[in-house]
Design brief:
The chain has two helices and six strands, in the order αββαββββ. It has helices at 3-48, 93-110, and strands at residues 68-70, 73-78, 117-124, 134-144, 147-155, 161-170. A six-stranded antiparallel sheet has the order 1-2-4-5-6-3, covered by helices on one side. The longest helix is centred in the N-terminal third of the chain and has 46 residues, at 3-48.
């Protein structure tokens, strides 16, 4: 093989590697752009859900929850009032279940995933007193395709885990269908 042939082969190999590198970079950029768009849609949609019972600020009878994220844990603090009770002095189980569902579903929402609840299993371990702050945490335990399995805990001010929940959320096939103009 002549020197010029080897040089041409080396140049062709270098061009192919450069082309592959550029394609990889372009694909990474495209994925980042798509993720940013999905996040923007979720944020815009979230802002449009001001009447959500859990997190909607404009809902006059809503819970008006605010959320924080630390690592893979999403959480909110809530102080149940008298209007949230079932038995005297104890938070209603339906409100507690709503808190559990909201923190799990809202975590997915914050990640840009619109996924309605498919199943919610709640285990009540201790009564939740009215008038004392509770912390509700949620996280994704597993994902398979469009199915997200989540876990949540409601923790009393003294550290007692009063309620545990597991949820199954199905990501919408058409995420854009949930976005309101």
């Amino acid at each position: 093989m002549k020197t010029t042939d080897r040089l041409d082969t080396t140049q062709d190999t270098a061009k192919e590697k450069a082309k592959d590198t550029v394609q990889d970079i372009a694909q990474d950029i495209a994925q980042d752009i798509v993720q940013d768009i999905v996040q923007d849609i979720a944020q815009d949609t979230l802002q449009d859900t001001h009447m959500c019972f859990g997190c909607g600020k404009a809902n006059p009878i809503g819970l008006h929850l605010d959320f924080t994220e630390e690592g893979e844990i999403y959480s909110t603090v809530f102080v149940p009032g008298e209007n949230h009770q079932g038995y005297p002095g104890i938070m209603h189980g339906g409100i507690a279940s709503t808190l559990m569902d909201e923190v799990m579903g809202r975590y997915l929402w914050a990640k840009g995933i619109i996924a309605p609840t498919a199943e919610l299993t709640v285990r009540f371990k201790a009564p939740v007193p009215i008038g004392q702050p509770v912390t509700v945490t949620g996280q994704v335990a597993a994902q398979k395709g469009r199915l997200f399995k989540t876990q949540s805990r409601l923790i009393l001010a003294d550290g007692t885990v009063a309620i545990e929940a597991e949820g199954k959320f199905i990501a919408a096939r058409d995420q854009a269908a949930f976005v309101q103009d």
